[in-house]
Write a structure and sequence with these properties.
alpha+beta, 5-stranded mixed β-sheet, 3 helices, 5 strands, globular
């Protein structure tokens, strides 16, 4: 004779399904233009020729303040209304040193970079994704993509 002992059934909680790949939320059309910028620092360069490593504390504080000022604006104000100062630049227009750095950080698959003017020749460069900028370079002398002077 076989005796089967049944144990009381324990309820197992349902497993939550997790998405394995992150899918970025994309704004439809130009919706991102109504958003304010956010900053990402994971790609920030700390090597020559366009690294942030040679800046003084005072310079960093000044740059931080200027980037904070951008946060009070929308992308429409930054890259549409102030397009003479801040704009997207095709990577085929940047200097070879900058392109080599893009390759080194494995970001050479982007088509455009964002240039933000902080002062006379001072620029901050990054990759714009939705409303966030992956900060890359500090370009104090406008060397990454020098502008051609008109009427010269």
């Amino acid at each position: 004779m076989i005796i089967v002992v049944l144990k009381p059934h324990k309820r197992v909680p349902a497993l939550k399904q997790f998405q394995t790949e992150k899918v970025p939320k994309k704004a439809s059309g130009d919706d991102f233009l109504n958003l304010s910028p956010a900053w990402r620092f994971s790609l920030l360069e700390l090597v020559d020729p366009f690294g942030w490593h040679n800046l003084t504390t005072a310079q960093l504080l000044e740059i931080r303040q200027k980037l904070a000022n951008f946060e009070s604006m929308t992308w429409n104000q930054i890259i549409i209304l102030a397009r003479d100062n801040n704009h997207l630049v095709s990577v085929d227009r940047i200097c070879s040193d900058a392109y080599r750095r893009l390759e080194a950080v494995k970001q050479d698959d982007v088509g455009e970079l964002l240039s933000l003017r902080l002062g006379g020749t001072e620029r901050v460069w990054g990759i714009l994704e939705h409303n966030a900028v992956k900060l890359l370079w500090w370009d104090p002398f406008h060397q990454i993509c020098p502008s051609e002077r008109k009427h010269t």
